[in-house]
Specification:
Helix content is 13%, strand content 21%. The protein is α+β, with helices and mostly antiparallel strands. The strands form 10 sheets. Strands 3, 4, 5, 6, 12, 13, 27 and 30 form an 8-stranded mixed sheet that branches. Strands 16, 19, 24, 25 and 26 form a 5-stranded mixed sheet that branches. It has a 3-stranded antiparallel sheet with strand order 8-7-9, with no helix packed on it. A hairpin with a 4-residue loop joins strand 3 and strand 4.
Length: 573
């Protein structure tokens, strides 16, 4: 059937096909080159699992928080792709790990809708691990809307009819719709992206705290999704998308899959699908990893899959040790979305993760950093005759990016302020200076702009923002400079938080892109639900992962590589 996969996927079918009645979840979809694996705790090795999920070498058991994992190997090790069940896949032969997120419907439980830790005391990690279930999950059969309980679930609900603290109506999570395709599940990168140049040096790492040591990819570089290595940072959001999409090509024959794999930078809604599963009985909220080094403000040496500093210590540490801090260690597993080796890592702390989502401001920053370094353009300039030029996402890339609507005032980066009976409309809110004597009015307008954006996100379900808390922090003036504020009256930095203290900060005209998860320096403010803003530039505290979008479907699986490489559509078509 893989030989005919392209034709199979071209027809949109909705059915319960692919559902595993015994496991009560959709069977993970395998593309050519994907090797199903399980972890043998006795000898700490990944081994080939039963594709049918029967026998003692089971591939997955979501009730037991054993999420389905696959690995890939390069063509030099192609014999491992057809190895017998129980065969060890050596770690040094593995090029990528991916984890299957099955199609599901969700409801936010009573007491948690639009409630945040500003009103509800945050819980300790012990309580998280004990299974505080803030979200109720029902797995869906095939790519239909029929749950395993036989009920048919809608794809949206009217948020204006749900009160704060009330349980939300259960809906199919929107991450399982990719363009016009309905998916049975998505494949998400298990670790952050990494890579090396020909001499084995990690790309995107300011080793030793020196910016000049940041290496750019060369012809030998390809995305790896493996643990215990240096993650790929110092990369723009546009280049992250390009690199993730470039995985589809597999020009260096490192993955073994065919062109039916459609990898891309993980979208905000896909990140949300993983986060929501963590807050259900099927997952665990990962502890924050404080791994990373800082030398005079230059950050470096972030290890993929690294655990927290201690069982109850989410602070910063820079002495990474494989025995103590690796993904399979006791501390490492606390940073997993399952509390064991079967989950997804690097979603809480270390470096923040770019997600393919943006505020549709039209600003030139979309062009400056939203496009690829080699001229691949995701955003194009529109030049109307009667108004100023602006930038817009190309329609060919619509399914790879989430576009968040903003008001005309946000697009113009200004708002009417009445001072002494006169309307001032040319005031730019990206500056760090308020009008002398009218600071209160200016701050109120900054606040209003941010909350307008926040309000427009009401219709975006499953992303872990408006469903979690009522308001966001915003970029305001504190002491003559821009900083985070919760209210216009704040005279010092304040940050609103979502569940478990994860901070929520809204974007602006100049900061339209989004990153998630927090950094190694954020401490309790970080976390899987942290929502932050960015210029999208090659900052030292951002990285990426990938997700397979076209693989998320009947035989269409989606990989969410948190900033991985992927082939650009310009080169695909």
């Amino acid at each position: 059937i893989l030989d005919n996969l392209d034709n199979y996927m071209s027809t949109v079918l909705v059915s319960e096909e692919g559902y595993n009645e015994e496991a009560k979840v959709n069977q993970p979809k395998l593309a050519e080159g994907m090797i199903p694996v399980y972890y043998d705790n006795a000898d700490s090795k990944w081994k080939v699992a039963q594709k049918d999920n029967k026998g003692e070498n089971k591939w997955y058991d979501y009730d037991a928080k054993q999420w389905a994992n696959i690995v890939t190997v390069s063509d030099e090790n192609a014999e491992l792709r057809t190895a017998a069940v129980g065969t060890t896949i050596p770690m040094d032969k593995i090029t990528t790990f991916f984890v299957w997120i099955p199609r599901y419907a969700y409801s936010i439980n009573a007491g948690y809708y639009k409630t945040s830790d500003t009103e509800k005391p945050s819980e300790t990690n012990e309580k998280k691990k004990a299974g505080t279930e803030r979200i109720d999950i029902t797995f869906i059969k095939g790519n239909s809307n029929v749950g395993i309980d036989g009920k048919v679930y809608p794809k949206n609900y009217d948020s204006t009819k749900v009160s704060k603290g009330q349980a939300t109506p259960k809906i199919v999570h929107p991450a399982f719709t990719f363009g016009d395709e309905e998916l049975t599940g998505i494949w998400v990168a298990k670790f952050e992206a990494s890579g090396t140049i020909a001499d084995g040096t990690a790309v995107g790492n300011a080793s030793g705290g020196e910016k000049e040591n940041v290496k750019e990819p060369d012809e030998s570089t390809y995305i790896k999704v493996i643990p215990n290595t240096i993650s790929w940072g110092h990369i723009t959001i546009g280049e992250s998308q390009y690199q993730c999409m470039n995985m589809t090509n597999d020009t260096l024959n490192k993955y073994g899959w065919s062109s039916i794999v459609d990898s891309h930078l993980i979208k905000n809604v896909e990140w949300g699908a993983v986060a929501y599963l963590c807050y259900s009985k099927y997952g665990v909220v990962p502890q924050i990893s404080g791994n990373g080094s800082n030398n005079g403000g230059i950050c470096f040496d972030f290890h993929t899959g690294a655990g927290s500093k201690g069982t109850e210590d989410e602070g910063q540490y820079n002495t990474w040790d494989e025995t103590t801090n690796s993904y399979s260690s006791t501390l490492g597993q606390l940073a997993s979305t399952t509390g064991n080796v079967y989950g997804i890592y690097d979603m809480s702390g270390e470096r923040a993760e770019y997600v393919a989502a943006f505020l549709d401001t039209g600003g030139d920053v979309l062009n400056q950093v939203g496009n690829n370094d080699d001229g691949i353009e995701y955003f194009e300039e529109i030049k109307p005759e009667s108004s100023d030029a602006y930038y817009k996402l190309k329609s060919a890339y619509a399914k790879y990016w989430e576009t968040y609507e903003v008001s005309d005032e946000v697009k113009q980066n200004k708002k009417n302020i009445t001072i002494n009976g006169k309307d001032i409309t040319q005031y730019l809110f990206s500056s760090g200076v308020n009008i002398e004597g009218e600071e209160e009015k200016c701050e109120q307008k900054r606040y209003e702009l941010a909350q307008e954006i926040w309000k427009k996100l009401e219709n975006k379900k499953g992303i872990g923002s408006n469903e979690i808390t009522e308001k966001s922090s915003y970029f305001g003036v504190v002491g003559g400079a821009l900083n985070w504020k919760s209210l216009p009256s704040d005279t010092s930095q304040t940050v609103l938080s979502s569940w478990d203290g994860d901070s929520i900060i809204m974007g602006t005209y100049r900061l339209p892109f989004i990153n998630k998860g927090g950094t190694f320096q954020d401490g309790a403010d970080g976390g899987i639900l942290q929502y932050n803003i960015s210029t999208g530039s090659a900052g030292q505290l951002v990285r990426f992962s990938s997700s397979s979008g076209i693989l998320k479907n009947k035989i269409y699986q989606s990989k969410t590589f948190k900033q991985k490489f992927a082939k650009s559509i310009d080169k695909q078509h």
